[in-house]
Write a structure and sequence with these properties.
Elements lengths: L2 E5 L3 H13 L3 E5 L2 H11 L3 E5 L7 H9 L9 E5 L4 H10 L3 E4 L4 H37 L10 H18 L2 E9 L3 H7 L1 H19 L3 E7 L2 E9 L2 H16 L2 E3 L2 E3 L3 E8 L6 H17 L4 E4 L9 H13 L5 E10 L5 E12 L3 E3 L1 H9 L4 H21 L6 E5 L2 H4 L4 H12 L6 E6 H4 L3 H14 L2 E7 L6 H6 L4 E4 L1 H4 L6 H16 L3 E5 L4 H9 L4 E3 L9 H10 L9
Parallel strand pairs: 1-2, 1-3, 3-4, 4-5, 11-12, 14-16, 16-17, 17-18, 18-19, 19-20, 20-21
Antiparallel strand pairs: 6-8, 6-11, 7-8, 9-10, 13-14, 13-21, 14-15
Length: about 575
């Protein structure tokens, strides 16, 4: 259903136009004056705008002028309404960029005819771009469930198959097993033989595992050096153990590469259904715990999951207790990683990153404490604290005339689902006196796809405030063109796992190109994460990436270091395209 924005200050006329449009199969959005119309145009990005010329405060010409100045709204078809029939008025509107002109009074047929005509012409213009967008989306969907290096199912597809296997096992009263395998000390191979050789070995490992189990089981590559074998019809523990031994032998058989033998060892954790878990996440977690237990207690070999292994989490629980007190004890601080425009080389924003200075343990990695916080309710107050501190700091930088920096803040799924989220953000911005247009909220794909309609409503409220929305770690979660087109978002952030291997890895390069093409088709900005080399930088710039962040320009920095960097106005040297 096409959305038509009606901007008309006379209530009866506006209501009548809306009725005619709604009855003709359109969705009418109403604005009672020009300023409201501009805000709604930014928030909804309608398919067409019908706007009266003569309005108080901001007239139709002013509305069109403002919208023409913004890339997101500049191409929206625009029809003027006026009681005047002056040639000069018509000429002025057309010179500003209007597409058509209706003189009041007009009939329903005249209105709908003009609307349909402009939409058809717009469709003819955008059709090539839509086709390109569709191709890019198909390319993304094709690789969304497949590991690009080994062509094995990835974690997303494995999880789906695991869910199906559980359902089937419940119906047939059969056992299933999940064998979680990780290659030990594989970094030594990358460091000594190079990443190209390392990737070749990983590919060969995937092929060997697949040949070892055949069609009776599913082999998946979860990440890096981690593989899983899903046995849909498992026998006794002895039979599962025999399979694990066979897999270990398969992996440990020497690889002959460049006239030298490369030997591998692996640690395996095994879970059984229904004994060791009743859902995919629990089974994967328990299998990984068993694998880590084996890795920490002898390396090459396998372990069945046992509930007693949970004692290994004692340290984790201890850290969790410390985490609950860390906020009240002011142990947290924010670091900021600059984001750089790939055309100008200048800093255009920063991402706020949470750091924990533990009084006894020192600096605790976010990879350790963030999952702990997400597993509890701590992530919400932590997220609110980050929002408050980051907004205050952004305003301080702006007050010091250090540039109106956009500040990006990661929003957890749990925080995003809070009913008070929008009001809390509004209040925080008011208290910090920060322009909402300087705030960017980063959300992961998975946090957006639960309850899509509520997600869209929340995002629209945030957009109406002026806040920008970015999808973080794009490509690592659920990618759907239909959702992307519905979500009112502004930017996609390409995950560092894809950026790290470009341009040499053709698969990752294809993914990055596809994401950029998709974003351009949807008129979204693209920010690449984890950029560390000039080769990566040049590849991204040549393919139309908007901005980057990564160690090539700067590590995450404490507040005072960011302030010095901004004062220096240090620019990234960007080679011409």
């Amino acid at each position: 259903m096409k959305t038509i924005l009606v901007i008309e200050d006379q209530d009866p006329i506006r209501a009548n136009i809306a009725v005619m449009l709604n009855r003709s199969g359109f969705r009418a959005v109403e604005a009672a004056n020009g300023r409201v119309g501009v805000e709604l145009a930014r928030a909804y990005l309608p398919d067409l705008i019908v706007c009266d010329i003569t309005m108080p405060d901001l007239d139709g010409y002013g509305v069109l002028t403002k919208l023409q100045q913004e890339p997101e709204t500049a191409t929206i078809p625009f029809i003027f309404l006026s009681a005047k029939a002056n040639r000069s008025d018509i000429r002025e509107g057309m010179n500003l960029g209007a597409d058509d002109y209706l003189t009041k009074p007009f009939t329903r047929d005249e209105l709908i005819g003009a609307v349909n005509s402009r939409l058809e012409k717009q469709a003819a213009i955008t059709q090539p771009y839509l086709a390109e967008m569709k191709r890019a989306a198909e390319n993304l969907n094709k690789i969304a469930y497949c590991d690009p290096l080994t062509n094995l199912p990835n974690r997303i597809l494995l999880r789906q198959k695991l869910q199906e296997t559980i359902g089937h096992a419940l119906q047939t009263q059969q056992r299933a097993a999940l064998v979680y395998l990780s290659l030990n000390r594989f970094s030594n191979i990358n460091n000594t033989l190079g990443y190209t050789t390392g990737d070749m070995i990983l590919k060969l490992v995937g092929e060997r595992l697949q040949q070892s189990v055949g069609d009776r089981s599913t082999v998946a590559r979860l990440s890096g050096v981690e593989f899983c074998v899903l046995v849909e019809q498992a026998g006794s523990d002895d039979e599962i153990a025999h399979l694990a031994t066979s897999l270990l032998n398969t992996v440990s058989e020497p690889f002959l590469l460049e006239e030298q033998n490369v030997c591998l060892q692996a640690s395996i954790g095994i879970v059984r259904f229904p004994e060791d878990g009743s859902d995919p996440d629990a089974l994967l977690s328990h299998a990984d715990l068993a694998r880590r237990f084996q890795e920490q207690n002898g390396g090459h070999g396998f372990q069945f999951y046992r509930s007693s292994m949970e004692v290994v989490d004692a340290e984790r629980r201890s850290l969790e207790v410390d985490l609950t007190e860390a906020l009240s004890k002011s142990e947290f601080e924010l670091y900021y990683q600059p984001q750089v425009n790939l055309i100008t080389g200048r800093v255009i924003g920063v991402e706020a990153l949470l750091r924990w200075q533990h009084p006894k343990r020192g600096m605790v990695s976010p990879a350790v404490f963030v999952p702990l916080a997400e597993a509890t309710d701590l992530i919400v107050p932590l997220g609110e604290w980050v929002l408050r501190m980051a907004c205050r700091q952004a305003q301080l930088w702006q007050s010091a005339s250090l540039l109106p920096l956009r500040i990006s803040i990661n929003l957890s799924a749990r925080q995003f689902r809070q009913e008070t989220l929008v009001e809390s953000i509004k209040q925080t911005l008011q208290e910090a006196r920060l322009n909402p247009r300087l705030l960017v909220l980063e959300l992961t794909e998975t946090s957006l796809i639960d309850d899509v309609e509520t997600t869209i409503a929340t995002l629209q409220e945030l957009k109406a405030m002026g806040v920008s929305i970015a999808i973080d770690d794009f490509g690592t979660g659920y990618s759907s063109l239909s959702y992307l087109r519905r979500f009112p978002i502004d930017a996609l952030k390409i995950d560092r796992s894809f950026v790290s291997q470009v341009p040499d890895n053709t698969h990752d390069a294809a993914i990055v190109k596809a994401v950029i093409a998709l974003a351009q088709s949807l008129k979204l900005k693209v920010i690449a994460e984890g950029v560390e080399t000039h080769e990566q930088l040049n590849f991204l710039r040549q393919n139309g990436c908007h901005a980057m962040q990564g160690y090539l320009y700067s590590r995450p920095l404490p507040t005072n270091a960011v302030q010095e960097l901004l004062k220096e106005d240090r620019r990234l040297v960007v080679a011409p395209s």
